[in-house]
Amino acid sequence: MKTRWLGNHKRNKMGCMTWKETRTAIVAGVVVLVILAIIAEAVKKHAEATQSAEDQSHAGTTKMQLTGTSGASVIGLYVQNGEMVMVSNSLPWSFAGTNISLVEFQKVKPADMIAIQLVYDGPGVHAGMTQHLDARITRVEVRVKEGFIATLHEQ
User: 58-154, what's its fold?
Assistant: First the structure.
């Protein structure tokens, strides 16, 4: 019987693996699949725990109030419970909601003067902020997470 070498495995004369080698390969494949399933489950649990913590970090009530040049128009959005809600209104405008994670407003006319006031009341947290949008600032983006992280955008 002539044996050919292919890699590190001896093959029979037809070039096939022996039954012992086949069985070892199947067992190794099953072990790898089990390890991958365990890793995938751990990643899934970590993602769920992280998402739960993220949900709780803005689980309070956010109150928004926009004031300024009477009749000035704003466009924007807020994200509530993971859903984006578009806003197009004239001043004054106000809204209160729970589970708000993002607020973004932009002036239609850059010359308009607008003030955005936000108040967040959550589990053990109270935060407030007022941001004035003068002629050079056209847009404000605020992330709500146990308080506020604001980003101002100029013309």
Answer: Immunoglobulin-like (2.60.40)
